[in-house]
Amino acid sequence: MSTLQPVRGTHDLLPEDMRAFRHVVETGRATAGRYGFAEMATPIFEFAGVFARTLGDTSDIVTKEMYTFADRKGELLTLRPEGTAGIARAFISNGLANETPFKVFYAGPMFRYERPQKGRQRQFHQIGVELIGVPDPQADVEVIALGRAILDGLGVRGNVTLELNTLGDAESRDAYRVALVGYLAGHLGRLSADSRERLERNPLRILDSKDEGDREVVAHAPLLGEYLNDASKAFYDDLKNGLMDLGIDFTENPRLVRGLDYYGHTAFEFTTDALGAQGTVMAGGRYDGLIKTMGGPATAGVGWAAGVERLSMLLAEPPAADRPVAMIPAGSDPILKREAMVLTERLRRAGFAVDLGFSGNMGKRMKRANKVCARVAVILGEDERLARAVTLRDLDSGEQTTVALDRMEESLRRMLAGAPEVAVGGI
Ligand code: ATP
Ligand code: MG
Question: In the predicted model, is pLDDT for residue 329 greater than 80?
């Protein structure tokens, strides 16, 4: 273990990676804004109980994946593995029960001790939304529509499928649990140790197991859909009709369950074939039990979270970097170098993005201008300096014009906008 390596399962985001990453987050943020979701942030660590109690003590996250540590006073803290529990905690701590519907967007790092592989990291990032306080299935329709709009904005919607299921209400799940346990008990020997342990405490979680043997048993298990009461069926029908009204295609997947304990009714995932085994890019559902479980007032909620790394990998090509202006002192007189720095600062203060190579002759500096994809070069040679002027060269067309220094910003702005230089001023 070299301390010069990043910790296993963590990654540096170099500037080029960061561009794709930011595009995902910014598209999410802007789209969420259009749907009326305001951004908020919660701390990256919370008391361990915030997650341990709410995610359910049989969930993978709580049993195997949490980064929990004692701080210097011995307080047990956890690096957040997901966003919903922290937001629910904040909803309660800040006394927001009268502020519903409470609609928020968030973005940030999450931490899970997982086996790292493509699309699965120990520090990863999510964007997510929560719509709290609305028991009506229209809320589910809205958050799904928002998720789809973000995938659309990223140009990846053609690569993903919306899978939908219902977990019904508590009464329906209780009836189903009896049937499921009856079935699974008959195949005990073929279940994994983990699943045998869950059989009593949370058999529904076995449906979400990634173990091959479990999956074979589960493939023939009774389906929750057969145990839905009328209220649960009506809720699910309203959701499906709402999605159809908006022209949102979905595939029903009766075996889709969410890994966390606080979900009921709606469960959904946007999945893709393009990322190998880690095919879920966005996942969510309804969690009407969560806030009460945490000690707050009974409050409905629905939301989703999406993996920023997985979405970045799906992007056809990352958005191009903004193209700067390159400042190029041309000549050996040291005064040109100093003057170039002064002009660079003047342009930056005026709002231009300006790249200044720190050394080299004209040829080397032009090379650098190409490397940073500069759009225009501002060339300051001896002649220009003496004439209180600069030469602006359009690096795409090769056209150039010399302008007086006091018209530099105005001319540059026109050139960047693609408009021809009209009155040729200067020398
Ligand atoms: P998986 O089945 O892939 O383990 P999950 O059910 O644990 O996913 P959620 O808790 O629903 O995932 O998180 C929502 C999204 O966050 C996932 O769909 C995925 O895009 C992303 N995600 C979850 N865990 C990781 C991880 N370890 N590395 C990268 N992205 C992740
Ligand atoms: Mg997981």
Answer: yes
